[in-house]
Amino acid sequence: MATELHETIFMAKQERHKNLFLNYKNLNIFPVELLKDEGLQFLERLYMKRNSLTTLPDNLAQKLPNLIELYLHSNNIVIIPEAIGNLARLQSLDLSNNALQLLCPEIGRLRSLRHLRLSNNQLKCLPPEIGDLQELETLDVSMNQLMSLPDRLHRCVSLQNLTADHNLLSHVPRQLCWLHRLNQLSMAANRLTFLPLDLGRSRELQFVFVDNNVDLKGLPSYLYNKVIGCSGCGVSSPGVEMDLAEALTEALVKLPAEVKVVGSETDNIVPLEELTMRTLHRIYHHRPADLNLQPPITLPKSLLDLLRFPLGHCHRCSQVMFTIIYPKLFPLRDTALAGVHRRTTVSFVAYCCSSHCLRTFDLQG
């Protein structure tokens, strides 16, 4: 096997191969032949799946500077070196089915990276620097031990496919609603209790999978024609049918923590903070281009963050909402998905900005 490996690498060097296949070679360490002399300067794709590697060399980028794709699926890699960030041309990195417990912040330096696969590892968190990957289109972090996703993930403005199944996630960062290119979101088998009010507002988001989140008892109505998988969510006792009032009470318990006040149909007064935030939002997000206004830097950080990422938008009139919402429950049997998910008890929750919108909003309309 050693002789065959040596010949394969020697031939790749002699003929300046762009692709090198070293899958199923029983490798315990990274082959030194790849790193001798000038390395493989012309190599663009390296396949090393199904080996027993535990780490990568620090001089990988120096010896293989033109790597575009690196496939390390199904090894025993526990840690990747900080030097991974020097692979300036890398577009695809597959580290699925390894033993990663930590992802170094230098991953954020891979500014050309488009596909990052980290499924089936032992990751408990992701570095905020992932948000620096503005070319990233695919991120798969399923089958790990993640309890949260980085808030800065919304900076991955090219992200189209996010898969985070089988983790320990209890919430979805509401900043993800700002990923306007996101087409598919999969967060099945987690511990989700609610979804952001605006999730699904983007026209690009077409597929949402949230199966087997047993505490997820309500879905924002922006998802009512987009959810492909929600079986096993909000499961009640067998044979027990909730009435509408009880279901609404259950849904309200799971509202986002940021919501300070839950409106009622008799509430006709909008809190001063809500009015102020709406006014500021209109000024700083819809001002004419030639109007030079400085950001409201004197506001507390909590309000600045809220100004940038509102709690949601009214499902009836699209009015931005900051401190008060009016929830309206639509049982699944009354929606377009009733015939698709016959065995689920999940209901859809619409969020309105006023009692008037609450009364006039019809999900079917």
Gyration radius, rounded: 25 Å
How would you write the strand order of the largest sheet?
1-2-3-4-5-6-7-8-9-11
Helix content: 10-25%
Largest sheet data: 10 strands, parallel
Q: Would you tell me the overall average pLDDT?
A: 87
The chain-level structural class is alpha/beta
- DSSP summary, beta strand count: 16
Can you write the helix and strand succession as a string? Answer: HEEHEEEEEEEEEHEHHEEEEH
The geometry reads as: elongated
Question: How much of the residues is beta strand, in percent?
Answer: 5-15%
> Which regions contain 5 or more consecutive residues with pLDDT less than 50?
none
For the terminal residues, how far apart are their CA atoms?
A: 67 Å
Number of helices: 6
Domain Disease resistance R13L4/SHOC-2-like LRR: 105-190
Protein name: Leucine rich repeat containing 28
Organism: Mastacembelus armatus
Keywords: Leucine-rich repeat, Repeat
In short:
With 365 residues, this protein is α/β, with parallel strands linked by helices.
What does this protein look like?
- With 365 residues, this protein is of the alpha/beta class.
- It has a domain at 301-364.
- The chain is built from 6 helices and 16 strands.
- It has helices spanning 2-14, 60-63, 244-253, 272-285, 301-308, 355-360, and strands at residues 19-21, 45-47, 69-71, 92-94, 115-117, 138-140, 161-163, 184-186, 207-209, 218-220, 227-229, 261-262, 312-313, 320-321, 324-330, 347-352.
- The strands form 3 sheets. The protein has a 10-stranded parallel sheet with strand order 1-2-3-4-5-6-7-8-9-11, with helices on one face.
- The radius of gyration is 25 Å and the shape is elongated.
- The model has no long low-confidence stretch (mean pLDDT 87).
- Keywords: Leucine-rich repeat, Repeat.
- InterPro entries: Leu-rich_rpt (IPR001611), Leu-rich_rpt_typical-subtyp (IPR003591), LRR_dom_sf (IPR032675), LRR_domain-containing (IPR050216), LRR_R13L4/SHOC2-like (IPR055414).
